[in-house]
Structure formats: C-alpha cells, structure tokens
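User: I'm writing a tutorial on reading structure tokens. Could you give me a worked example: one chain, its sequence, then its tokens, then a sentence or two explaining what the tokens reveal?
Assistant: Sure. Here is the example chain.
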Amino acid sequence: MPVTISISTDIDSYEICTDTLEKNTKWLLTASKIKDHTVSVVLLDDAQMAGFNKKYRNKDGPTNVLSFPAGDETSQMFPGESLKDLGDILISVETAKREAQNEKKQLARKLDELLIHGFLHLLGHDHERSEKEALAMWDEEKRIYKDMKHRRRKTMTHLAINVDHVATIRQARGITEPDPVLAAGICELAGAAGIVVHLREDRRHIQDRDVYLLRDTIKTKLNLEMAVSKEIIGIALDVKPDMITLVPEKRQELTTEGGLDVIANEKKIRKTVEKMNKAGIPVSLFIDPDAVQIEAAVDTGATFVELHTGCYCDATTEKERDQEFLLIERSAELAFDSGLRVNAGHGLDYLTTARVAALNTIEELSIGHAIITRAVFVGLDQAVREMNEIIMRAN
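And here are its predicted structure tokens:
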C-alpha cells in the first residue's frame, strides 16, 4: 500500500512531519478498506497551486487542496505516476497555514483535514454538486478525522499535576503549610488524572512524609520522579507508587535540566528497571526527544518515556518553536512505534500545551509550575480546570 509524499523545496521551512502525513494517508486507505491502491500527496506553495488551479479549474489564485483521481488526464502531471492507482492530492501549505491561523488550529491538524477532504474527492465525493452532498461530505470528514485522531489510543491525553512547587513554598518558611498533600487532593477534585512529585536526594521540596501520605490518600495515580539513587530506589520499593519516572538530578540546578542520558547510564537504569518490574512498578524515563535515546530506552525494558518539552516551551521564535515541536512529534511517533508508551512534560503552560496534547501518541502531560503560578491569581481548583479544558479541547 505505497504512499508517495512529495514536498516543494520552497516550503521546507514549514517543518512538516512527513512520516505522520504518510502514516495518516496509509490509515485512510486501510480504514476505507481499499487494498492494492496507492496515493500520491504533493505539498505545494501558493504560486504552484495557483498555476494548477488556473490550468485545470480556470480559477485565479491558489486553493487549499485539489484532487485528481486516477484515470483523470491531469493526474499524470504529478510525481509518483508509476505508483498512482487511486490518484493525487495536492495541498498548498501556505494556504493551509493561513487557514490554520485564522481557525486557531495547528498546521498539522489543518493538513490532516485537507488530506481527508482530498481523499474523499478521490473516492467520488463532490461538495459542489449539491448542498445535500456537501453536508454529507462534511459529516464524513468530521467522522473520519475523529477516527484518525483516536486510532492509536483508547482515551484522551490526561493531565498529571506536579505539586513540587507547593512544597517549595512550604520549605521556604520551614513550616507545615502549604501542604502538597492537600494540594494534590484539590487537583484531583478539579479533574487531574494523576499526581507527580519529585523526591530529590537533597529533599529541597518534597519530603518522605509527603510521598507516604500521598500514597495513602490520592485516588488517581501517583508518579514518583527520582534519580537512580540507592536510597530513593529503596523508598520507591517501599511506597510502591503507580509508576516511577527516572530523571537526571544535579544539586545546583533550580529544576531538572534536560533529559536523562540513557546511553551513559544504561547499566544502572537497566538494573533499576528490573527491580521495579519485579515489584510491579512501571518505569518511565525522562528523555530528550532524540532517536538514539529512545532506542536506548527500549533496550532498558522501560514501559514509558516522558519526552522533555523544555526546549519547545523556551523557544523564542515561531520557527524555532516549530522545529522543536517537530522533534517532539517525530520522537513520540518513534517511541510509540517502538512499543513504548509516551508521556511528555517540562515547561508546558497555558499557551504551549494544546499543540502537544493534540498528538495522538501521547498519553499524559506532566505540568506543575504553570498551574501553581496560575493558582496564585485564580486559585488551584480553577487553574487545574483551565488547563484540563485546554487538553480536552486539543483532543
């Protein structure tokens, strides 16, 4: 079931994940029960699309998508002719980008919508024939998009709240309030699907008491972040959280800086994973979105990886952010296809979360600082509900 993806050199700067586009096209063929057919998807700029639109539809200017079924004489004009069976779908990425911005959508989502629209044209649908057919085609597009979006996971992306910063405020005064255990309960009541705490070796915020009480009180899921430390491993085996996440840890850092170097620490990580597996505790590895680290994570026997989103969140230009997001998207695809379950987190806030939450390979987002910061102004319950709403809309 070959799929050809051709990209104009003029639109390389849009940082499109062609692997995802190819997989979605193959899924469309499979979901439509079309066997032994091929599709060519051609990504163009506005000038190129305008030329085809004028030549074959006698209309000025670019359009967002054009389809040419196999057998149509125009379909012989495009790349991949030796593979064509079903036909060609042409998409103007420049037009798609403008429409995505106007509709407040991510470019990847808009491309998927246009891909589906063009694919339905190849199957014989035509919204220009009648209003009734236009409405039927629109309904079919929405149905297919929903199925495509959720084909890889059975549930929506979940929100896990890191309450470390509540403990940081408490420790600043050396007293008993605010209590991260109470904060965790509020987060759960507001809709959080899990609680995350990092028990550091220097105990700068979360304390042993917090971890044990959280294990006894939370109703959702406890994720214990920790370094590969003999002392903390012992505590984890005693507490038995629902999962642990191994992270790098430096005494002098303000917060976790970058992902775990799985390759350099593979022996220690593998031993820790084995101990946790025997105790029935799934292990996640907090890593940078890097193919080599993902491959190493698979070799350790870990169940999850949590992709570090810090560089994406810290990007100062749209181009840089797009590039960092593409790394996350491709890494999530690779990890998922390698048999790992995928989470993500670090630095996500009320502006950057939706794009990551929309990736259908990611199960859970771990967010802390942004929510606690927001809680200063609107309260913890409201801050959690607002973030949960962003994630739900992205799904």
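What the tokens reveal: The CA atoms of residues 139 and 328 lie 31 Å apart. The chain is about 50% helix and 15% strand.
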